[in-house]
Amino acid sequence: MFQGPSTPYPERLRTFSGFWNEHEATARQLAAIGHVYDRPPLEAIEEGSRCVTCSQFVRRESSIRALEGSLGHRRNQDGDYETGFGGFAFHFPNCERLQVKIPLDPQATLGGLHGGHRIGDLRERWEERSSRTTRSTTSNSEVLQTSPLFSLPTELRLEIYARILPQLDEVTDIVSLHRDSARVCTKTALTKANARDYSKANLLRCCKTIHDEALDILYTNRTYRFGSSKLLYLFLRNIGHHGRQQLRSVDICGPSREDAIAFSLLASCSKLRSLTLRWTRPTLLMPQARPIWVTDSVAALLEISGVHAVEFASDGPDVKSCLKEGSEDAAIVRAQLTRPKGESGSIRWVDGNMDV
Ligand SMILES: [Zn+2]
Question: From which domain of life does this come (predicted)?
């Protein structure tokens, strides 16, 4: 089927279906920025996706590296973050799809990709450590299982981990470490006057069993709150695939030009059960002159599924929001997001309009 410039987000997403199962997170993000998957003929050598508007082609491996790969691997030999996506772009210059922003695109972060990622650095170290312990699991596991720690009931072990790990609030605000930076941290850590204590996270490096059990604590019964979808996106990239599969609850402000890609990545978080939306637009879709990023922002939001609790909040009494409890838009959003995981939505998009 011909995929033209007006191909809506759900249709773009469907072109990847069944072919990118291992890389669902990348496929969703590609659809968000306007790409479709070209199923290659058997004799084709290169496999990848192309933009429905400017036809820019990007190889599959390049997309996976740029949209899903570890942020730590983006550093060059000097330890600085690489700018760009390693010599390619998802669009030709002036493509109108560029209005949907990718936060790690140097143009979007204004060259702020230098320095170390706090959460990313820690995750990288945990993963490096846990992959090392995975390799030596056979010899270690017997030793571990004889440890008195593992003779305790699981809930007691979790209680011990909770006391050792850094204390996080039930609602933890994630903020940017520096303005225009890709680094994120908790608001509490940013405002702490004393030197930050990273030793508490050493627990996660003990062994893979403890790592997996304890990491769960960071996400269970905890809501992560973001002032923008750009911060949400950077957080989701920093916590990596494993973290994204643990994330349960998110509180997010919108709308913004990073919504489409951030919501697409959020849709790949399989355990997401609670979502609070703070929306500052009086209508879900503007009445006329609908830019691509607005339509795609809403379409990507409505592709999220399997959420149990959808709440609508506001940052102040004067905030005009279409997503207020009792409103028609709120009912549509809740109905779509709470459908069973993986079930197709009931919204059809015709020329940028929502057909409920
Ligand atoms: Zn393009």
Answer: Eukaryota
